[in-house]
Each structure stands twice: as structure tokens, then as C-alpha cells.
Amino acid sequence: MRTEATNGKEPCGFYGAESVPEEIRELYRDLMHVWCIETCSPRLRPQWSEENKTLGQCTITSFLVQDLFGGKVYGIPLPEGGYHCFNKVGDCTFDITSEQFGDAELVYTEDYEQLREIQFADAGKLERYELLKRLLREYREKK
Which of 9, 46, 101, 113 is in the most buried spot, having the most CB atoms within 10 Å? Predict the structure, then answer.
């Protein structure tokens, strides 16, 4: 279930937003300023838009969340192959890139842990992850 958690700030419409600490919602709001076509998965770039900034950002974002908040990264198998990544930190399960799926309901299970070593064996994915980290740091320094 997707709800908008606000706490008096910009709404966060991602899965699990209501159950996470404010720091994670703040990260989401900051990422909305830095997600871009260059951080999007290359195969999804033709569909990426300013209106759907979370598209193609799941893996690199989930591992960035893990860097900042710990926990584990899990994946939901996709019909076309691969996994859509999300996070579990403590007893909070959340997916700050879930909005890319619109109103589609995803089933968040923990059966498929995603490992950084495997995901970042793809040099292009690692480069996008490093770019996202740099853009976030630069944005937060100027904020």
C-alpha cells in the first residue's frame, strides 16, 4: 500500500513512507532533485522523464540507502527478467523508487537478497551508483 507521508514537508508517495524515519523521507526528497537520465538504467532511458524520476533508479538507490541506513537490499522478480530492488532496515520495509510503477501493487518479500558484489560487477551500474552518490553529496552541500 502506498501512502503519502508528509510531516509538514513535501509529500513522499513511495511504498512504506509512513513507517520510515524522517531521515529516509528527507533522502527521498533530496534524491528527487538529483535523479536524472544519467543515473537511470540505460535500457530504461527512452522511457525516463522528469515526471517519472524514479524509473530505472532502484538498484543504485537501494544500495545508497544501505550505505546510509544499513539493512539489506532485496529484489522482486520482474516478468521481463531481473529484479526490482527495495530496502529493509530494522523492521521497516520500504521502496523509495516504487513510484515508477504507478498504481501497480508490488509484492514485497525477502526471498531474494541482492548483493552489492554481484550487482556492481556491472561496471556501468557501479558508475551510475558513484554518480548518484556524488550528485547527492553536491546537492546536500548546496542546500
Answer: 101
Domain count, the chain: 1
The alpha carbon of 28 is separated from its chain's Cα centroid by a whole number of angstroms, namely 8
The Cα 31–Cα 12 span in angstroms is 11
In percent, the amount of the chain with pLDDT more than 90 equals 81
Q: What's the domain range around 87?
A: 17-142
- The residues with which 2 forms a beta bridge, in sequence order, are 15
Q: What is the pLDDT of residues 4-56, one digit of tens each?
A: 444 445 678 999 999 999 999 999 999 999 999 999 999 999 999 999 999 99
Work out the number of other CB atoms within 10 angstroms of the CB of residue 66: 18
Phi and psi at residue 113, to the nearest 5°: -65, 135
> Do the domain assignments include residue 77?
yes
- Residue 113 CB partners (closer than 8 Å, separation 6+): 72, 73, 74, 75
Residue 82 Rama label (left phi>0; alpha psi -120 to 50; beta): left
In a domain, 8, yes or no: no
